[in-house]
């Protein structure tokens, strides 16, 4: 009963964002030098200047220096004393910087109210006095503070306001920092396409400025974004690139690289390699570092994967203790699941169950769908093994809900990945084309210089080269346009498929589930007489079958939209397909006391994909069962026509609606006994029949309907 625990986005918590934004703010201002003592002495000397602007600038820089050394207590004490001694009428740029640096320090120690107070004062002063650069810097700091409270929309809006100001001031480093922070926030929100666009912009600026430390930090951000997209190979590539400049990185960043690299290796089913990276991470992080809970948790999972149970318990309990101390409840939940799996392996199922229950409760309260999925699956298996069917069903439904939510997110991520790859390839082609054009111009100029004395020959060669390049460029442009149009069409098809899937899932599966919930509540409340109890059970069975049929059709339709329809043609006995389908729907047919007359008794072989044609017959017959009143008849026929086979299914139902029943957007009333109808099955049937180069249609038949479809003989 051991469950595979995946740590997705474990680093999305306030302390991580404190550290990252703290480093980014101060990196932009400079780094430690060999003459640090002399530099600090000069700052202290400047604090005694009679010029308030010089004095306050020195105070602001000293607060920054104390903070960079990790002496937050001294930085805050020093900053507060300066504030008390400074006139409330002070309006210098140095005072605005001092307020902003104090806000950063208070944010790092977790005093958010004080942090917000000083950031706001700094921003108002900068806006009032027109200190544009200070205004943009404070916007960036306020953006990070808003992120700590998960107010990402407001945080992103502030960064987008800061970037034009930094662009106007030609502050390239500030622009790059803002773009990188913006990318990190989009990555946290799951908009990976936007995240990568902004991070690549930042990376190019850092490279142009030769700001290599910032460049390496941006590589880490790109690795984390690709990891969150489950593009694990690319994530590892960027972590390796970042380590190429390890001498420029602090221990915090080196530890961050190794722990994220290890997380990718765990997802790639490489626990032994992951343990090696986690050991390297722990060499860079001290025992007092709250981040330590993550490599400890990853180690526990790695050892569980390897079956080393003693080490599993040791690291899981140690990580949970760190997480409780740092108030990171999602990590507590993750470790409880690992410990539950550990005790389950030892046969101590009751203790495992208690840990999984606690883990699920915490995961639910912090909104961690992946942890809810892992805990609910373990609890479902536990209660199922103990034959507690009621609780087993409850956790099975919770597991399915969490899994469906994660599946939708994964599909959205895959679409974002395609969009990002498309944009990247487009930019790459434009750059390659520009380089080729530039090289062509250089070649022509060199050719002219070398052939200056042979003017006629130069003219001939020049004309040949020009004509060749023009033709080649036109050909390349035509090819690029063709490829671009194909990629746009593919992307549009994927987007349409995604929108259809989301629409169908959100609308057509919710109604039967609500009905199913109502029926189950009635059964749980009790007090029903025998007949009402029987009817409630029948309705519940109908709704379950409806959901099952819908999901089966949904999966086949989604596969046909995303992967295309690839029929496997062979000789198929059509009479056996009809008999198998009638047997498959026997329960629904018997429940309504319907008479099914199959007029095809002899074997008739058609050239078709057996699974697709049985899906067509099943969907049409199921539709007939839903809309045929109790006790009536349904008739199945197959006629051999010139060049084709004609299948028909007649019912004595309620007749045809006004709209095309095979259209995906068609709406359907409930069946004669409340059965749900979505129309997805008939739409899928049309696609399958047309794939076989056949036709499908419906027409009135007495009071009912007859659905016919054809298949070619060859």
Automatic annotation (TrEMBL):
Xref: Gene3D superfamilies: 1.10.287.130, Histidine kinase-like ATPase, C-terminal domain, Tetratricopeptide repeat domain
Keyword Glycosyltransferase applies: no
Catalytic activity: ATP + protein L-histidine = ADP + protein N-phospho-L-histidine
Taxonomic superkingdom: Bacteria
Name of the top EC class for this enzyme: transferase
Location of the Histidine kinase domain: 504-714
UniProt-recorded name of the protein: histidine kinase
Organism: Marinoscillum furvescens DSM 4134
EC number(s) per entry: 2.7.13.3
Any GO BP annotation: osmosensory signaling via phosphorelay pathway
Pfam families cross-referenced by the UniProt entry: HATPase_c, HisKA, TPR_12, TPR_8
Keywords tagged on the record: ATP-binding, Kinase, Membrane, Nucleotide-binding, Phosphoprotein, Transferase, Transmembrane, Transmembrane helix, Two-component regulatory system
PANTHER family with a match to the protein in the record: SENSOR HISTIDINE KINASE GLRK, TWO-COMPONENT HISTIDINE KINASE
Entry-linked SMART domains: HATPase_c (SM00387), HisKA (SM00388), TPR (SM00028)
GO molecular function list: ATP binding; phosphorelay response regulator activity; phosphorelay sensor kinase activity; protein kinase activator activity
Membrane-crossing residue ranges in chain numbering: 452-471
Keyword Transmembrane attributed: yes
PROSITE patterns in the record: HIS_KIN
């Amino acid at each position: 009963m051991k469950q595979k625990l995946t740590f997705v986005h474990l680093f999305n918590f306030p302390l991580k964002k404190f550290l990252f934004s703290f480093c980014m703010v101060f990196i932009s201002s400079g780094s430690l030098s060999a003459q640090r003592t002399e530099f600090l002495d000069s700052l202290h000397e400047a604090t005694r200047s009679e010029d308030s602007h010089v004095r306050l600038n020195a105070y602001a820089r000293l607060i920054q220096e104390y903070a960079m050394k990790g002496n937050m207590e001294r930085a805050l004490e020093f900053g507060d004393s300066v504030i008390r001694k400074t006139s409330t009428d002070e309006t210098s740029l140095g005072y605005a910087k001092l307020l902003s640096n104090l806000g950063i320090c208070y944010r790092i120690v977790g005093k958010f109210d004080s942090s917000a107070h000083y950031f706001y004062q700094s921003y108002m002063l900068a806006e009032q006095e027109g200190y544009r650069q200070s205004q943009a810097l404070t916007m960036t700091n306020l953006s990070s503070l808003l992120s700590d409270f998960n107010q990402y929309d407001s945080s992103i809006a502030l960064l987008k306001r800061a970037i034009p100001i930094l662009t106007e001031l030609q502050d390239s480093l500030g622009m790059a920092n803002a773009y990188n922070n913006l990318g990190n926030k989009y990555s946290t929100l799951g908009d990976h396409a936007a995240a990568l666009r902004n991070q690549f912009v930042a990376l190019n600026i850092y490279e142009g400025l030769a700001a290599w430390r910032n460049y390496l930090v941006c590589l880490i951000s790109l690795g984390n974004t690709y990891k969150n997209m489950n593009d694990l190979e690319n994530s590892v590539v960027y972590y390796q690139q970042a380590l190429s400049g390890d001498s420029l990185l602090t221990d915090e960043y080196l530890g961050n690289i190794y722990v994220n690299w290890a997380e990718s290796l765990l997802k790639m089913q490489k626990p032994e390699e992951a343990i090696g990276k986690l050991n390297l991470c722990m060499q860079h992080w001290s025992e007092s570092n709250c981040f330590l809970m993550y490599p400890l948790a990853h180690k526990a999972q790695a050892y569980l994967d390897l079956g080393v149970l003693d080490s599993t318990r040791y690291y899981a309990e140690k990580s949970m203790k760190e997480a409780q101390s740092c108030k990171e409840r999602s990590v507590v939940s993750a470790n409880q699941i690992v410990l539950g799996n550990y005790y389950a392996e030892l046969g101590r199922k009751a203790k495992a169950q208690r840990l999984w229950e606690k883990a699920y409760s915490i995961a639910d309260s912090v909104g961690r769908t992946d942890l809810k999925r892992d805990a609910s699956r373990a609890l479902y298996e536990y209660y199922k093994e103990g034959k507690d069917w009621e609780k087993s069903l409850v956790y099975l439904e919770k597991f399915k809900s969490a899994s469906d939510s994660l599946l939708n997110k994964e599909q959205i991520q895959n679409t974002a990945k395609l969009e990002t790859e498309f944009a990247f390839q487009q930019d790459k082609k434009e750059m390659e084309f520009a380089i080729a054009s530039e090289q062509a111009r250089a070649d022509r100029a060199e050719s002219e210089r070398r052939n200056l004395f042979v003017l006629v020959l130069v003219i001939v060669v020049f004309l040949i080269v020009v004509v060749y390049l023009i033709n080649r460029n036109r050909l390349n442009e035509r090819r690029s346009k063709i490829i671009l149009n194909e990629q746009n069409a593919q992307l549009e098809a994927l987007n349409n498929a995604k929108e259809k899937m989301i629409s169908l899932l959100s609308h057509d599966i919710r109604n039967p589930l609500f009905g199913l919930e109502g029926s189950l509540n009635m059964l749980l409340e009790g007090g029903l007489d025998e007949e009402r109890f029987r009817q409630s059970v029948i309705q519940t069975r109908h709704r379950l079958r409806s959901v099952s049929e819908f999901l089966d059709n949904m999966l086949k339709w989604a596969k046909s939209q995303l992967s295309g329809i690839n029929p496997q043609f062979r000789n198929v006995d059509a009479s056996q397909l009809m008999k198998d389908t009638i047997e498959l729907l026997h329960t629904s047919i018997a429940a309504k006391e319907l008479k099914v007359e199959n007029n095809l008794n002899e074997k008739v072989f058609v050239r078709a994909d057996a699974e697709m044609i049985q899906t067509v017959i099943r969907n049409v017959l199921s539709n007939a069962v839903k809309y045929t009143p109790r006790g009536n008849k349904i008739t199945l026929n197959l006629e051999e026509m010139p060049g084709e086979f004609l299948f028909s299914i007649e019912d004595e139902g309620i007749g045809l609606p006004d709209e095309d029943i095979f259209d995906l957007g068609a709406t359907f009333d409930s069946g004669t006994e409340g059965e749900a109808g979505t129309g997805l099955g008939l739409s899928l049937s049309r696609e399958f029949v047309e794939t076989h180069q056949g036709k499908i249609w419906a027409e009135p038949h007495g009071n009912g309907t007859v659905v016919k479809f054809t298949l070619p003989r060859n």
